[in-house]
Write a structure and sequence with these properties.
single chain; 363 residues; alpha/beta; two-stranded parallel ribbon; 10 helices; globular; binds iron/sulfur cluster
Length: 363
């Protein structure tokens, strides 16, 4: 790598980091805008991991014009970060156009990908679109019947990223049931750091995003990865540690307000594991919806493993107690007093039949 390339990367890194600090400051100063939005750009995937039901093998990409309309609406709320995923987002032929639009609004742009479609040309195209963050989740060292997202297959893609990417790269490894060898997570994290990337480790949760304790060896591996030099800053929160030890935790989930999940049909959901609530079209979502959900307690919070929602909630856990109760499939009501009827049950709607998923987000 020439000194010019090194300098360019350093300047891009400093610019990105400055923007992030400023946006975190803004998130602390005001509770009136979404901090993290997860948006599905295409439901189709080129893989078929056996634990995943967040993909199909036939969906067309969401038209770029439609995604751009959604981005513009999110920008009008003052959104901080938009992450595009799928399915496999790199199957979207105009992904870079959408990323460029996100950046045009001054919003941080990220993607979550399985990495299979990365080439030198595609990485350079993502550089030109000014992508900020890319995450790849690697499930094992060798491909198996559960997942082909293995270090063996993806290592050459990681080398391409190390050589050509101007954006931040994070490699996520996983622990929990369905992962045959916990040592694989260590191997993946070590390789990520060797190549100059950050690394995170996620715990597999059950079909509704809820906590499943991991075994003693997995806990040791978890702590070792967290202690690594370039372990991502998000690993320093206590949520993941409590999850790893099978403990429930008290926090205020601000999904539907500070964290949004937008499906391919353009509906707002709490998260990938609580789809259907509130289930309102994004283009009809208003400040009133954001405020209602900010103050709405989610009964699934104590045993939730959705790390993005928890990271976002750290900005607000110390303030604004939640006095409203979530209810299934809320319909828009004209009278604010009628927006919060007593729920028939204090349980949120889960998605029936969801298999285990990693970190709550498909990649
Ligand atoms: S607590 Fe929030 S992020 Fe977690 S499963 Fe429930 S709605 Fe989703
Ligand atoms: S986990 Fe990711 S790569 Fe695997 S099938 Fe689901 S969307 Fe595709």
């Amino acid at each position: 790598m020439t000194w010019k390339t090194k300098l360019r990367r350093k300047l891009i890194f400093l610019h990105r980091r400055t923007r992030e600090y400023l946006l975190v400051g803004r998130g602390l100063a005001s509770t009136h805008h979404p901090v993290q939005v997860h948006m599905i750009s295409i439901r189709r995937c080129n893989l078929a991991c056996s634990y995943c039901n967040e993909f199909d093998d036939f969906s067309k990409p969401v038209p770029a014009e439609e995604l751009i309309r959604r981005v513009d609406h999110l920008a009008s709320f003052g959104t901080t970060l938009i992450t595009l995923s799928g399915g496999e987002p790199l199957l979207h032929p105009e992904l870079e156009r959408v990323i460029a639009r996100i950046r045009h609004h001054g919003i941080i742009a990220g993607i979550i990908t399985n990495g299979y479609l990365l080439t030198k040309e595609r990485i350079e195209s993502l550089n030109r679109a000014r992508l900020d963050h890319l995450q790849i989740s690697i499930d094992n060292a060798q491909p198996d019947d559960i997942s082909k997202k293995s270090l063996k297959v993806l290592d050459q893609k990681l080398q391409l990223l190390a050589e050509h990417a101007e954006f931040h790269v994070n490699i996520n490894s996983v622990l929990g049931s369905g992962v045959n060898n916990p040592e694989d997570a260590l191997t993946v994290a070590r390789r990520a750091q060797e190549l100059g990337f950050t690394s995170t480790v996620g715990i597999i949760h059950d079909g509704s995003g809820q906590l499943k304790p991991i075994g003693p060896r997995e806990q040791e591996v978890f702590e070792e990865i967290r202690g690594m030099k370039k372990s991502c800053y998000s690993q320093f929160n206590q949520f993941q540690r409590r999850i790893a030890h099978g403990l429930s935790h008290e926090w205020r989930c601000r999904a539907g307000s500070r964290y949004l999940y937008i499906c391919e049909d353009g509906l707002v959901h709490y998260c990938s594991q609580q789809r259907g609530a509130p289930g309102v079209p994004l283009l009809q979502y208003t400040q009133q919806d954001l405020r209602r959900e900010f103050y709405t307690a989610k009964s699934c919070a104590p045993r939730c493993t959705i790390s993005c929602a928890q990271q976002t909630a750290m900005l607000d856990n110390w303030r604004a107690p939640q006095t409203l109760v979530a209810f299934p499939q809320p319909a828009p009501q004209p009278d604010p007093a009628a927006l919060f009827p007593p729920p028939a049950s204090d349980e949120l709607v889960g998605i029936s039949g969801l298999p285990n998923e990693l970190q709550g987000e498909a990649d």
